[in-house]
């Protein structure tokens, strides 16, 4: 977690919005869900994973602060279990700027929908 997250006070997190939503169509392949614009600083505060199938599935999340490499080195959440027809919620506090990216991966093609929420503000 970046120390920049400390500069966001409670009031600035109240204005959070949906930053991205994705349903990966390929199993076990990380896909980018969000990358801020070049002049934007963002904080991701929550991710939900919704499983609309009857099969259990697992999910992974990746945060690369300066690129688009999605490996064990950038994995921040591993094997989030999503039971069939249920959802899971993960609280996060990740800062990013336009050089970074956030990606997700599903063990089951087309069955999980990921949504992330956070705040964006102009980069200082």
Task: Give an overview in words.
The chain is mainly beta and 124 residues long. Helix content is 4%, strand content 52%. It is built from one helix and eight strands, in the order αββββββββ.
Radius of gyration from the CA trace? Answer: 14 Å
Q: Helix segment count?
A: 1
Per CATH, the class reads Mainly Beta
List the uncertain runs. Answer: 1-8
CATH topology: Jelly Rolls
The count of domains is 1
Average of per-residue pLDDT values: 88
Quick rundown:
The protein contains one helix and eight strands, in the order H-E-E-E-E-E-E-E-E.
Write the layout of secondary structure elements.
Blueprint: H1 10-14, E1 17-22, E2 31-34, E3 40-51, E4 57-64, E5 75-82, E6 87-96, E7 101-106, E8 112-122
Features of the shown structure:
single chain, 124 residues, Jelly Rolls, 4-stranded antiparallel sheet, disordered N terminus
């Amino acid at each position: 977690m970046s120390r920049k997250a400390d500069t966001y006070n409670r009031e600035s997190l109240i204005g959070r919005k949906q930053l991205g939503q994705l349903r990966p169509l390929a199993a076990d392949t990380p896909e980018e869900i969000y990358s801020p614009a070049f002049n934007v600083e963002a904080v991701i505060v929550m991710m939900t994973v919704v499983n609309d199938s009857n099969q259990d599935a697992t999910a992974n999340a990746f945060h690369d602060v300066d690129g688009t490499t999605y490996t064990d080195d950038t994995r921040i959440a591993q094997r989030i279990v999503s039971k069939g027809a249920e959802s899971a919620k993960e609280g996060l506090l990740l800062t990013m700027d336009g050089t970074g990216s956030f990606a997700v991966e599903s063990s089951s093609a087309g069955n999980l929908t990921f949504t992330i929420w956070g705040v964006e503000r102009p980069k200082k």
